[in-house]
Amino acid sequence: MSGQVFNAFYAIIKHIPAGKVATYGQIACLAGMPRCARTVGYAVSGCKDPAVPCHRVVDRFGGTKPCFDTFAPRTQRALLEAEGVLFRLDGTVDLDRCQWQP
User: Fold this and answer.
1) Do the beta carbons of residue 21 and residue 13 sit within 8 Å?
2) Is the pTM of this model over 0.85?
3) For the chain, what is the mean pLDDT?
4) Domains of the chain with bracketed CATH
5) Given 3-state DSSP classes, what are the helix, strand and coil percentages for the chain, each rounded to the nearest 5?
6) How remote is the C-alpha of 19 from its chain's centroid?
């Protein structure tokens, strides 16, 4: 996949404010590639740039992913909770309250 495509995703992700999340599909749609949610997943899982807050990207159900748990289990959840993101009892992000609306 082209680095330009990944960079388009990263540019959008940089706008997600602390305390909010976006879904893989939402990022794909905002980049004009609505059927590329999986490609967004590839982009965020391989991103090494600390300026891109990839931990703010979750799946369509609000689920976190193990690719962000590089230091310890539940690292992504801990980072999101530290920013004020709310989680439901089932362990998923409360998208109704925390999904970014650009």
Assistant:
1) no
2) yes
3) 93
4) 3-96 (1.10.10.10)
5) 45, 10, 45
6) 12
